[in-house]
Specification:
CATH superfamily of the largest domain: Response regulator
Strand content: 25-35%
Number of strands: 15
CATH topology of the largest domain: Rossmann fold
Strand order of the largest sheet: 2-1-3-4-5
Helix content: 25-40%
Largest sheet: 5 strands, parallel
Length: 259
Amino acid sequence: MHVLIVDDEPLAQIALRNVLAGRREVEGLDTANDAVEALDKLMHRSFDVLLLDISMPEVSGIELLDQLTAHGRLPPSVVFVTAYQQHALAALEKHAVDYVLKPFSNERIEEALDAVFRRSAAERAVRLVETPPARHRLPQQKREKIAIKSNGRILLIAPDDVTSVHAEGNYVLLQADAGSYLLRVSISSIAEKLRPYGFLRIHRSVLVNASFVEELQPLTTGEYTLRMKGGKKYTVTRTYKSNLKDLAVCWIGFDGFDE
């Protein structure tokens, strides 16, 4: 993967470089001190991942993406790294993979990189198989889709691309491989609609896609720690732990989720 860091703060650039240096997925790394320099590099070179600050002199990170699109170039996978929480909604509108607030820890950046590298690898794989030779083409099984209304548009996404859903006040944040979507619905409503697709409610404010769950760890409180693919962990409260029985078709050496 080829990564471009765009940030006008030298210390932030150094911190991001140090994390990226330890990632085997990174094949090439470059930096830009502002959006103008970044646009020039993005127009002349190909990058898979963009670690992008929002508040920069002259041209913001959001405006950079708009200018790139206006030039007919498809932006790479984007992780916003910024000190300003109020830009989160604008970032979601740009289908950013993640939104990291400064000051950030190495662990938080690692988590964002895990997500963006998974997405970039998946997109590469899709491009490789988009136009196979005719003699190798096989009938494709139709994938079920769910329709969501986000920012005035109706998007069609596959349920198995969605990892989790989180309550955010009067909204829910739907986390998918392709990015995050903020929807004005209740978590109870979306839980009912996503149940046929293998989504489990594990907390009053969290749903998870069962196909992404890898491990359960019982706690002395009667709750469970649930670990997802990629390492993200959630606490399963006692109210919802009985839902965990739907994670597997059978349980061996396990007596069940007692109340």
